[in-house]
Amino acid sequence: MIPHGFRYTRAASLAQAKSLLKGEARLLAGGQSLIPAMKTRLAAPSDLIDISRLSELSFVRAEKDALAIGAGVTHHAVSVHPDAIRLLPALALLAGEIGDPAVRYRGTLGGSLANNDPAADYPAAALALNAIIRTDRREIAAAEFFLGMFTTALEEDEIILSVRFSLPQKASYAKFRNPASRYALAGVFVARTAKGARVAVTGAGPGAFRLPEMEQALEKRFHPSALEGIAVDESLLQSDLHASAEYRAQLVKVMARRAVEACL
Amino acid sequence: MKNIALTVNGEKRQAKVEDRALLALVLREQLGLNGTHIGCDTSQCGACIVHLDGVPVKSCTLFAVQAEGATITTIEGVAQDGALHPLQEEFREHHGLQCGFCTPGMVMTALDLLKRNPAPSRAEIRKGLEGNFCRCTGYHNIVDAIAAAAKRMRP
Known about the structure:
Chain A has 264 residues and is of the alpha+beta class. In chain A, β9 (170-177) and β10 form a beta hairpin. Chain A has helices spanning 14-20, 34-39, 75-80, 82-87, 89-95, 101-106, 109-115, 122-128, 142-145, 212-220, 245-263; strands at residues 7-10, 25-28, 47-50, 60-63, 66-70, 132-135, 139-141, 160-166, 170-177, 184-193, 196-202, 209-210. A five-stranded antiparallel β-sheet of chain A has the order 4-5-8-6-7. Chain A has a four-stranded antiparallel β-sheet with strand order 9-10-11-12, sandwiched between helices. A three-stranded parallel β-sheet of chain A has the order 1-3-2, with no helix packed on it. Chain B has 155 residues and is an alpha+beta fold. Chain B has helices at 23-30, 86-93, 103-116, 122-128, 140-153, and strands at 2-8, 11-17, 49-52, 55-58, 71-73. A five-stranded mixed β-sheet of chain B has the order 2-1-5-3-4, with helices on both faces. The radius of gyration of chain B is 15 Å and the shape is globular. Chain A binds chain B through residues 1-8, 10, 28, 31-32, 35-36, 39-40, 48, 50, 52, 76, 99-103, 105-106, 180-182, and chain B through 2, 18-20, 22, 41-44, 46, 49, 55-58, 61-63, 65-66, 68, 109, 112-113, 128, 130-132.
């Protein structure tokens, strides 16, 4: 499959990338979502600005009570980075379960968040870990960043530079994958923090979302049994050829329980 | 059109490509390296996997211009001086292929797997092959071949 024609530029600097990001131009990092979308002609940018080699987007750094990761860091690099494994092992494990090995060598954190695929893994972690998305002009809290299917708070010409994940006391991610695409049919990220429990779901609805009822129950007692009897509203979930909303609701409950168990 | 320079299987190669040309097609149609296969063309099956600067990538999901200046190894670059790589020999020995369509991608993925994990369990081998589909025989003999190669390749 051949995409529409476009002009390719390998950005030599962030400043050059910014100056070229106009109109129908799009940033290209790993391209693991964008290139398939272009091949099926769901996307037809006029220009691709390749930011995958910009060193300023490529770092993993421990900060005060947080882990900061550059937007251009690949899933593979997160999954094996010593600081990620030490400070936020749940995130390293999540990164190591995205797609498949070849996808993980190319796909990036910034690309995943900017694309906001409803079945992507990182959005659940960003919500549960109270992430701050740092761009070329501001900081956006994850709670304000994801605006529904493939939609984010980013301006047309805004560039994600890095993401700051708050460190929890404990965290875990459990997902049930579509066996062919390996996208989450339901994935639940649970974080236990000093300020309470956070539960975020991906794959099941039109975008990642939190489950306040489960969070409140876990604050009273952080144990899988605390989740018993909590209903997941099917009307918020997707039905498609892969799974019904009813099935996804059940998967969310099971994945939440598994994630809590893994935190104990 | 852009002129790109690549190092492919140890040789300096040039190609004149459209910006939208996918690496898999450039390898096959311009550089004559049709060991790299295009299966699903939707980034799922892994038949098109090559090594780009030392790591496996899906060449159907990468524009050739992105690889400008890079070092690429395809299945044609795995055998050395006419002698099959131990991994290729074990695929033959264990009947790790039937039609052979997925094999180049399987081998390129397995080479990286064994580099990262020289003594993988069978479960780790299967997990490592998640991005490679075989539609003939299933994976049993492929896992056998990789496990045998791992044993042979360990110092």
